[in-house]
Structures are given as structure tokens and as C-alpha cells.
Design goal:
Strand order of the largest sheet: 1-6-5-2
Shape: globular
Distance between the termini: 63 Å
CATH class: Alpha Beta
CATH topology: Rossmann fold
Number of domains: 1
Strand content: 5-15%
Bound molecules: zinc ion
């Protein structure tokens, strides 16, 4: 006889499949009944191939290696990269994942992350994610960055560790300039050393604008003796000036 938890899991799986049949996922961009992000909308999303700063991932006008900001104030984080531009269907997808409870969108977005990670030949022992404040995670019901990291972990078979914690609530980064963003998230995180000491960590978030949040998380991971921290986000705005 199947154990109780096994029966519950089987029941949850059956209910999930029944719900999918009754309410098939609508595309977050064009609303067609053809998956979370339909093939036509997926085809409009392109990987970032133009020059970016080799440290912070900021778009650059030419193939110079690092941007002015990184030359003057080098980041602690080993590197930041993003898979695609934050516009069009991708902007809709990330908005739906964060604000419209569309957890299902994490799957196609996780594919972009895994592809970027594999194409970049990143050395990583564990995958982690930028944490939400516990109150915000409770309100949303999940942490979207963690869902993305779990998908990436499943696709690349690199283990996921939940190691970072937000030690204080921070204001929304939207509307703040580069300096404001850095101050807003400075020392806002701690990491558990037992999970990351000596490890190469791949740190996942949905969007990087200035990279201030990833940098603050990286500082916490380095305080916990991480060996390297590679920041990877699904998307990045095409332009941002500090
Ligand atoms: Zn669509
Ligand atoms: Zn840079």
C-alpha cells in the first residue's frame, strides 16, 4: 500500500493535471491558450549579444572590457551577466511572475538562465537566489528568484542551496539612482557559512539594473567565505545611467 505522503503527492499531481486541462495556461504576453509563454512570443525574445561590461554586465557602446563605474569602483562580485533584454514579452513575463502569481512562467524563464550559464562556461558548485524579506515572501507566497534558481538547478543538475537571508526590509529599488540603490541594500543580507564556504556560487535574480542587490548579496556570501560569486539574471534593461 502507498504511504500516506505518496498518496497525497499522487492526488496533488492528478489534481494539477486536471486543473491544467480545465484551465490551460494562457500566454502572459498575447493571452493565447498556448502555454505560459507561447512559441510566437518566445521567438521574439533574443539573447544579449551586444557588448557588455565584463564585470557588471552593463551595456557598452563598444567592445571595451569594463565600464567606467567598474574601472573606478571595482565590484566585489566576480561577474554579473543577464540572458536577455528586459523589454517586450520578457518584461510582461517577469511582471506576471512577480506580481500576478504566474509561478508557471518560472519554467520557460529558467531555460534562459540555464542556457546562459552553460554558454558562459561558469564554474559553480551551488546555485542560490536573492532572498525576499520574509514578510514579502509570505505575502507573495513564493520568492520568484528562488523559483528561477530551482528551475536552473533542475536543468543543470547543480544543487540549489537556500543560504541568504534579508536582515532588514529595504525600499523598492525602482526610482532610486545608482548611489541610492547601493545605499538601500548595503548590509541587508547575511549568508550561512556552512553552505557556501569555499564554494563557487551562482547567484540568481530576475532583473539586474545597476547590480546593487547582487553586489550586496555577494558581499554577504564572501563574508561567509564563498570562493567566487557569479551573478546571473534573466533580464537587464537596455539602458540605465547612474
Ligand atoms: Zn504569446
Ligand atoms: Zn561595469
Amino acid at each position: 500500500m502507498m504511504p500516506h505522503s505518496g498518496r497525497l503527492q499522487a492526488w496533488a499531481g492528478l489534481t494539477g493535471r486536471l486543473l491544467d486541462l480545465l484551465f490551460p495556461a494562457r500566454c502572459v504576453n498575447c493571452k493565447s491558450v498556448n502555454g505560459s509563454l507561447c512559441p510566437a512570443c518566445l521567438a521574439t525574445i533574443h539573447p544579449i549579444t551586444t557588448p557588455t561590461c565584463e564585470r557588471c554586465g552593463h551595456p557598452l557602446p563598444s567592445t571595451q572590457a569594463t565600464c567606467l563605474q567598474c574601472t573606478m569602483h571595482p565590484l566585489q562580485i566576480t561577474r554579473i551577466q543577464s540572458a536577455v533584454w528586459h523589454d517586450g514579452a520578457m518584461r510582461e513575463a517577469i511582471h506576471a511572475l512577480k506580481y500576478n502569481r504566474r509561478r508557471d512562467v518560472a519554467r520557460p524563464l529558467g531555460k534562459f538562465l540555464a542556457e546562459k550559464m552553460l554558454a558562459s562556461n561558469v564554474t559553480c558548485d551551488v546555485i542560490s537566489s536573492v532572498p525576499l524579506h520574509p514578510a514579502r515572501e509570505l505575502e507573495r507566497g513564493y520568492n520568484q528568484a528562488e523559483l528561477l534558481a530551482l528551475e536552473t538547478s533542475a536543468l543543470t543538475r547543480v544543487p540549489y542551496v537556500r543560504t541568504l537571508r534579508r536582515t532588514r526590509e529595504t525600499a523598492d529599488q525602482i526610482g532610486l539612482n545608482g548611489n541610492g540603490r547601493r545605499k538601500n541594500v548595503a548590509n541587508a543580507f547575511t549568508a550561512e557559512a556552512s553552505r557556501v564556504a569555499g564554494k563557487n556560487v551562482l547567484l540568481i535574480d530576475d532583473v539586474a539594473t545597476t547590480g546593487a542587490t547582487l553586489e550586496s548579496c555577494a558581499a554577504a556570501l564572501f563574508r561567509a567565505d564563498a570562493h567566487s560569486v557569479y551573478g546571473l539574471t534573466v533580464a537587464r534593461p537596455r539602458s540605465y545611467t547612474t
